[in-house]
Amino acid sequence: RYAYNEANFRCPDQRGLQPSGDLIVTTGLPSLASSLPLDDICQALCNDFPVSISTDPGRFLCNYLYYHSLFYSHNSTCAITCDTTSPQPSPSVGGDTAKKPTCYSLFVHVPPLEVIAMD
After folding, report:
1. Integer Cα distance of 102 and 67 in angstroms
2. Phi, psi angles (nearest 5°) of residue 78
3. Is the dihedral of CA 49, 34, 105, 60 positive or negative?
4. Vertex 71, ends 65 and 75: CA angle to 5°?
5. What is the distance of C-alpha 47 from the center of its chain?
6. What are residue 111's phi and psi, to 5 degrees?
7. DSSP 3-state assignment of 69?
């Protein structure tokens, strides 16, 4: 559900880097939350899969990746031109211009195949 703007790697990454107390994005907020309806997604999946929502991705690569993806998705917009004369706005030439999110971010931890078989 959340990612935190702090890089405190407990061990070096593949390049040998091991940040301690660094910000992931210097201009970023202390934490970011997914804008997706996670409770609804979890509910839809829980009948078929053992899923749960995590509030803490740790402070290693998972958090680093998730914070970057949330930061990008929260700060990404595009101008969409809509035809306001039709009942269902659709992209067209003319009409009102509104800013809409262009992407969302979801981080999923997938357990080893010994825990959940591929089939």
Report:
1. 17
2. -140, 160
3. negative
4. 150
5. 23
6. -70, 165
7. helix
CA dist 60 and 80 (Å) reads 37
Single-letter code of the amino acid located at 102: T
**85-111 pLDDT per residue, tens:** 434 333 333 334 445 556 788 888 777
**Rounded CA gap, 34 and 3, in Å?**
8
Give me 47's structure tokens: 């009948």
Place of tokens 């740790």: 58
- Which tokens is 115 given? 């825990």
**Interior/surface letters 81-104, b for 16+ CB within 10 angstroms, e for the rest:** ebeeeeeeeeeeeebeeeeeeeee
Q: What is the C-alpha to C-alpha distance for residues 33 and 106, in angstroms, rounded to an integer?
A: 10
SS3 at position 22: strand
d(CA 119, CA 85): 49
Q: 54-93 pLDDT, tens per residue?
A: 888 877 788 888 999 899 888 775 444 444 443 433 333 3
Report the amino acid identity of residue 95.
G
